[in-house]
Amino acid sequence: MMTDNRERARLHELQERIDYILQSQGMCFNDIKPELDRWLVEAIKAERAAVSREAAANTLAAVIEQPGLNCPQWSTARYCEDEVERQGFRRYSPAWYQRVAWMLIAWERARCCKGLHIEDILDIGGLVAPEKNRIRPRKVNVIVGGHRGAAVEAVPGLLQRLCETVSRLTANEFYLEFERIHPFVDGNGRAGKILFNQLNRTLDNPVLPDVPKDWVIP
Fold first, then answer.
1. What is the C-alpha separation between 206 and 20, in angstroms, rounded?
2. pTM of this structure
3. Contact 194/124 with Cβ under 8 angstroms?
4. pLDDT tens per residue across span 5-28
């Protein structure tokens, strides 16, 4: 019974994120909401039992490739899968399933951006990691790859300045500055790549930003 209650609570939390998008962005996602709901159910089920690679792949394909499903497009879904794995989550693990779903939801939020405003960035950050990014921007200092992100007291101003200068930046320049600021406790890499593709106009056929090999957070 406790397991069932936990599953219901986790599913309810995920579905609330979808409902938030539907309410705040209008009817853009009515067509995909049932499929996202169904995929999230599969993600919760995966927490109860080990899922074989083949079974997980079949579940994912059944959701994303279903006829009439307009988005998330397959290329976008694969991009999100790979990115979550790059962040250290084992492919087809429960945590991987959940974060891919969250990233896809955040991706759909980015499709509705008209320009790019600080509210858009904060929303996307909350959607890619709803458990850790309840408070946005972050209120604590963070260490990233051995380097400290922007001081917590400077984050709001830096983020506002980034939005004000976005029209003068390339998508790649924006991405590097966003990662330098690191405005969230978690999910900055995933949020940054969504924002990069939104600015790069490649949300439907996403690409990776160009990060210099020797680049580190200053």
1. 25
2. 0.70
3. yes
4. 665 665 565 555 555 544 544 434
Is residue 79 within 8 Å of 73, Cβ to Cβ? no
Calpha distance 155→137 (Å, rounded): 7
Residue 144 φ/ψ, nearest 5 degrees: -125, 115
- DSSP SS3 for 189: helix
Structure tokens at 40: 């999230």
* Contacts of range 19-26, beta carbons closer than 8 Å, 24 or more positions apart: 21/105, 21/108, 21/109, 21/127, 24/123, 25/109, 25/112, 26/112
Return the H-helix or E-strand segment holding 10: helix 2-25
Compute and round to an integer the Cα radius of gyration of the chain: 17
Where is 148: in which H helix or E strand?
A: strand 147-148
In the structure encoding, which two tokens stand for residue 157, read together?
Answer: 């101003």
> Phi and psi dihedrals of 47, rounded to 5?
-75, -15
Distance of CA 179 to the CA centre of its chain: 14
Give the tens place of pLDDT for each residue, 28-54. 445 555 555 565 555 555 544 444 444
Angle at 134 between CA 23 and CA 196, to 5 degrees: 75
Assigned token pair, 11: 């599913």
- Please answer whether residues 142 and 185 qualify as being in contact, where contact means their C-beta atoms are separated by less than 8 angstroms: yes
How far, in Å, CA of 180 to CA of 194, rounded? 16
